[in-house]
């Protein structure tokens, strides 16, 4: 019987929506990966985002990053997926990967939001990369003022 996304992941996600139990999150992450490897072509954007979210919440930053990297370019057209992966990287203290996600987000022409910036700053803080964190806060303030001035003028 083929693995169906909603049978494997949606049920596990809905069983404990706020606090994922680690065992269930691991099962969901493995189900996501198997689903994506077996049938990436039929995957919908919402399913892909959910798979990344589940991997992120289960503290599998590598799996979340892999899903994002393997996704077709047409499915990487919003910042939400980058936010989930950067959050997983921040929890793991993977500041290099988090900063690369910020750069890739910008290279794709997407506008990084405050969630993405905060996750990268948090990842840098976890590894005591203070000067880089301060630089990111400055960039974040500049980006916020630039966006705000563009909206009101």
DSSP summary, beta strand count: 0
The arrangement of helices and strands along the chain is: HHHHHHHH
> Structural class, please?
mainly alpha
Residue fraction in strands = under 5%
Q: Any idea what the radius of gyration is?
A: 16 Å
Terminal Cα span = 57 Å
Biggest pleated-sheet summary:
none
Q: How many domain units?
A: 2
> Ranges with pLDDT <50 over ≥5 residues?
1-10, 12-21, 148-153
Name the average pLDDT. 74
| Shape label | globular
Describe this protein with a few key phrases.
8 helices; 153 residues; single chain; mainly alpha; 2 domains; globular
Question: How does the SSE layout of this entry go?
Answer:
Elements: H1 5-15, H2 22-39, H3 45-57, H4 61-70, H5 79-92, H6 95-107, H7 114-126, H8 130-152
Helix pairs in contact: 1-2, 1-3, 2-3, 3-4, 3-5, 4-5, 5-6, 5-7, 6-7, 7-8
Kindly describe this structure.
This protein is an all-alpha fold and 153 residues long. Helices cover 75% and strands 0% of the residues. It folds into two domains: 1-77, no CATH class; 93-153, no CATH class.
Q: How would you summarize this macromolecular structure in one to three sentences?
A:
The chain is mainly alpha-helical and 153 residues long.
């Amino acid at each position: 019987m083929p693995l169906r996304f909603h049978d494997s992941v949606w049920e596990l996600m809905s069983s404990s929506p706020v606090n994922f139990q680690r065992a269930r999150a691991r099962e969901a992450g493995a189900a996501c990966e198997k689903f994506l490897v077996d049938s990436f072509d039929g995957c919908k954007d919402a399913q892909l985002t959910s798979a990344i979210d589940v991997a992120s919440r289960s503290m599998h930053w590598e799996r979340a990053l892999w899903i994002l990297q393997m996704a077709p370019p047409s499915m990487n057209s919003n910042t939400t997926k980058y936010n989930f992966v950067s959050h997983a990287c921040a929890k793991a203290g993977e500041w290099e990967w988090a900063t690369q996600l910020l750069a890739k987000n910008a290279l794709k022409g997407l506008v990084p939001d405050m969630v993405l910036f905060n996750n990268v700053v948090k990842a840098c803080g976890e590894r005591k990369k203070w000067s880089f964190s301060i630089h990111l806060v400055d960039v974040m303030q500049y980006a916020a003022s630039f966006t705000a001035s563009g909206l009101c003028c």
